[in-house]
Amino acid sequence: MTVGFSGSCLCGAVTFESEMEPMAVGHCHCEDCRKSSGTGHCTHVAVREDALSLNGSVTAFEKPADSGNLVSRHFCGTCGSPVYSTNAARPGNIFLRASVVDQPEKLEAQLVVWTKRATAFDPVDKKLMGFEAEIPPEVMAEMMAAE
């Protein structure tokens, strides 16, 4: 596998390699991302599921998002590090947490969603393309069409 980037959880029990560069990198300020990250937002790195090799065991927590779509958050059962999420509305895609990528220099955020839920302690980066709620389907489709 040609590696675009790789990563691991805090304890190293879960590792991954992506054979592609990220299709998209974005910040999310929704309440679920804030609570699951322990900070003001999550940064997600989108890749195709078939381009990712995951090793180790993850535990999942599922909860419907504000959109009604079921989101599954996967984390290391040993150290608790969030590793990735999936969204029922985006089959075939995985959204890795940027915090577990070992080459952060390969990541550059392009957008921010749920800006209306951003907190005063973690303001929105105004230089990025921003959306008050979830990303519009046509924008998501364009970004996810990347090879």
Automatic annotation (TrEMBL):
Pfam families: GFA
Zinc keyword on record: yes
UniProt source species: Shimia sagamensis
InterPro entries reported in the protein's UniProt record: CENP-V/GFA, Mss4-like_sf
Protein name: Uncharacterized conserved protein
Family the entry assigns: Belongs to the Gfa family.
Keywords: Lyase, Metal-binding, Zinc
Residues in CENP-V/GFA domain copies: 5-125
Lineage: superkingdom: Bacteria
Lineage: Bacteria, Pseudomonadati, Pseudomonadota, Alphaproteobacteria, Rhodobacterales
